[in-house]
Write a structure and sequence with these properties.
about 500 residues, eleven-stranded mixed β-sheet, six-stranded mixed β-sheet, 17 helices, 26 strands, about 25% strand, globular, disordered N terminus
Length: about 500
């Protein structure tokens, strides 16, 4: 029997596979399984190795290596031509579908012991999930967080590599949260994770939709595929969950049209379950009205008003009193790398933001103009990541140029692409007038310094695209690079 822990757990194979429907089983099912693994390099004696057909490699090619490392059982879609007599093979129609269910079973079904809320959408996932984490800790609960920036088990950080980890890592992490007494967990749910079934087997107490604009088309190919991946998350929520959706996004009600969950809405423009208004806005924060109650927050921009409204709505749907939630909300602060403002000794402001889609750039620049009201210039430094959706590059440049007095196009994690080529593809989106206001400086450090040299008192510099990241990825190598550090250096020099 499973001992309901994420620690070294032993299960009998026949118990472990109860939630999947094997096409056939070859070998004994009374074997003791000491662990589950997706990577042959992480496989240990007694493990069940799960052969997953990934986007980069096919796990079936590593079955022999996993057995050599000690695997006593293998989950696969295709049986090996020469199966080993002392190994049990469990053949399934879809490894993707089975892996999550096996992982959650092995780690003691952690989402039966805590309330898990997933946040999905193009922009705002990190902010909403992280603010929910901080809010519920302020309310006195032990809480877990799974996000792009960092995972947390209450106050203990756990490093992260992906927006949503693989099913084994994810369930091990949730198991730790449950073991350490977490009552709630908040999680960013990426379209990749939904499409690849990494969250299969998890029971969600709620789902939140922020918005949907063009992103990840290098993977999904079309916006419609991207939308369907997001929608699938809500389609599969249980009746006991809530589905909180942004009524002001054109896809808000599309997301929930087939869900079994209890639907709730939030909006800054329309009648909704959670209605908000921006009463005042400045670089120190906003005065908001949520459900006819005022609160002051140190956040800037309508997009952050949406984020906070989603947090407010989710907390109330989880059973917390509105007044209690609003008091806690007013004490929260922006997430690292999301509209972080740095004030120069010379009187201009630099803002660091993770915006790396056309829509996100529009939101951030709109927030800046909403505060400036024409009293200063806006200088934007932005690039586009390599080996990602190329189609958004000219759109990002056009959006940045439209809302900036000066634009500097630069490098942003070129990965395995030529950074100059990426910049040229961004320039292609600009008209003749916009090009006269644009500089191309490949070196991001020099681009930031150039912006600081051009800025004067009252101006605002937006350094967009990397936010919390502290590296530049070039040819597969991550080099230390932090936009905030570079801005501070430029303040001292310029």
């Amino acid at each position: 029997m499973c001992n309901q822990s994420n620690k070294a757990t032993n299960m009998i194979l026949s118990e472990l596979i109860q939630r999947v429907q094997p096409l056939q089983i070859t070998g004994r099912t009374d074997r003791v399984i000491t662990g589950v693994s997706l990577d042959s390099r992480l496989t240990a004696p007694g493990h069940l190795f799960m052969a997953l057909r990934g986007t980069q490699a096919d796990g079936h090619a590593y079955i022999t290596a996993a057995i050599a490392a000690g695997a006593v059982a293998v989950l696969c879609e295709t049986l090996p031509e020469q199966p080993q007599a002392d190994v049990t093979y469990v053949q399934v129609a879809s490894s993707e579908e089975a892996v999550g269910k096996l992982a959650t079973t092995f780690y003691g079904d952690p989402t039966s012991k805590l309330d898990l809320v997933g946040v999905t959408g193009t922009n705002g996932k990190t902010t909403v999930a992280t603010l929910l984490y901080h809010l519920f800790r302020r309310l006195g609960y032990r809480v877990g967080l799974i996000s792009t920036v960092c995972n947390y088990i209450d106050d203990r950080p756990v490093p992260t590599e992906h927006t949503t980890p693989d099913a084994v890592t994810l369930n091990a992490l949730l198991g730790q949260m449950a073991d350490e007494g977490c009552r709630y967990a908040f999680m960013e749910v990426s379209s990749h994770a939904i499409d690849q079934r990494r969250i299969s087997g998890l029971k969600f107490a709620g789902g939140i939709f922020t918005n949907l604009t063009r992103d990840h088309l290098d993977y999904h190919k079309t916006v419609d595929n991207y939308l369907r991946a997001k929608k699938r998350f809500f389609d599969e929520l249980p009746r006991t969950a809530f589905a909180l959706t942004n009524l002001d996004d054109k896809n808000g009600l599309v997301m929930t049209q087939n869900t079994r969950a209890r639907i709730a809405t939030y909006s800054l423009r329309s009648l909704s379950d959670f209605k908000g208004r921006v009463l005042e806005s400045h670089f120190e924060g906003m005065l908001l009205d949520f459900n006819d109650q005022e609160l002051a927050v140190p956040f800037i921009g309508r997009f952050n008003a949406y984020n906070l409204l989603a947090v407010f709505g989710a907390a109330v749907l989880l059973g917390k009193r509105e007044e209690e939630v609003l008091v806690a909300l007013s004490t929260l602060h922006p997430v690292a790398g999301r509209f972080e403002a740095l004030r120069s000794p010379k009187g201009y402001t630099a803002i660091v933001d993770y915006a790396h889609t056309p829509d996100a750039l529009e939101n951030v620049l709109s927030a800046i103009h909403g505060v400036l009201e024409g009293r200063g210039r806006v200088l934007t430094v932005v690039g586009a990541g390599g080996n990602r959706d190329k189609g958004k590059r000219p759109l990002m440049a056009r959006e940045a140029a439209r809302a900036s007095d000066r634009l500097i196009l630069t490098s942003d994690n070129p990965r395995f692409e030529d950074p100059q080529t990426i910049i040229e593809e961004m320039v292609a989106g600009l008209d003749a007038d916009e090009r006269t206001r644009t500089l191309c400086i490949t070196d991001r450090r020099e681009a930031i310094r150039a912006a600081c040299m051009m800025a004067g008192a009252g101006d605002v510099i937006l350094v967009a695209g990397k936010g919390h990241e502290d590296y530049q990825e070039v040819q597969g190598v991550k080099h230390h690079f932090d936009d905030k550090e570079e801005i501070a250096r430029a303040f001292a020099l310029c």
